[in-house]
Amino acid sequence: MSIQLKLLSRLSELAPAQWDALHDGGNPFVSHAFLSGLEQHGCLRPEWGWQPQHLTLWRGEELIAAAPGYLKHNSHGEFVFDHAWANAYARHGMEYFPKWLGGVPYSPVTGPRLLARDDADRHALLAAIVAHAGSETLSSAHINFHLADESALFDDTWLQRSDVQFQWQRQPHWRSFDDFLASMDHKHRKNIRQERTKVSRAGIRFIVRHGDEASADELRAMHGFYLQTFAEYGNSPALTLPFLRHLATQLPRQLVLFLALQDDEPIAGALCLRGADTLYGRYWGGATLPGLHFETCYYQGIEYCLREGLDRFEPGAQGEHKLARGFLPTEVRSRHWIAHPAFREALRDWCARERIEVSAYHATLQRHSPFKTQDTP
Q1: In 149-160, which positions are buried (b, 16+ CB within 10 angstroms) versus exposed (e)?
Q2: Which residue from 234, 237, 266, 303 has the least number of CB within 10 angstroms?
Q3: Residues 229, 284: contact at Cβ < 8 Å?
């Protein structure tokens, strides 16, 4: 039976069970609940360039493969920066936008991007992505933050880029936060203890709420902290309070909030999502008190992972300050198909040079690990 490509402008066109049958449920960001929630609750505004265009492959009435995707008219909220590419196109009198992007809006989180039950269908999906970009005369197709296991699926027409994020990985002998600290050298261990002591002496305590435990007031407070952070940096917030409420009901155990209380009033919070073995830190906001950011965003999450038996903690993109707090440099990946042959070859060289630079940066960071040599993860 032949395979048919269908484009979906709304994920609600599919039953959740159909979409979610194509992945193992270990990564909440590719779930029907998360992606459709963005669409339903005002998070994908047209002026921000996000137009849902999910690619699905069907064999008769059976959905066999899918890629969460978007027609993009700018590069807002992607975290794999291609502004130089768009400028190069413009200098040559060519249009870089629109392009197609396979990924998760506003989420620099590694996860499955080619959803299918076997590699044959994943290969078919990649071929369909290229065919779609060609038929719609798009400049390019991009797949951001894909799994390392998906790398072998791409042929050499897909250009490879890499970057560095700072991630925490639990070691077998870590049973408590003290075990984690004991693996660090004296300087870093002392600094973390001092930061935590400042927060404790300020009379701040923490509560952890999963989605099905969070009250309406707690969700509202967390969204307020999120809005505050975006206002402080002059950025436009994308996530709405109805979307946060949606996560609390549709992903009740995957949504995790860390709320800092002073005199029983919330003064800061971190919004995370929990996968099968990983905690994903996404947003934070709160008062500017010494040590509060690090405690809310990092140390509470590490304690949660140790308590819950999670292996990894990905606190978000960028941030060299994370290294001193036990988050080590980790490679993240993306792939890019460029329609114009000459630009493809020019960008192939550009990507090769970038990978060399990223590799050197990664090596430099590793030399500054906070862990004792014998305990380096």
Answers
A1: ebeebbeeebbb
A2: 234
A3: yes
CB atoms within 10 A of CB 47: 9
The answer to whether residue 304 scores a pLDDT higher than 60 is yes
The yes-or-no verdict on residue 253 having pLDDT over 60 is yes
Beta strands 140-144 and 99-102 are parallel
**Rounded CA separation 221/352 (Å):** 45
Predicted TM-score of the model (pTM): 0.96
Structure tokens at 217: 């007031």
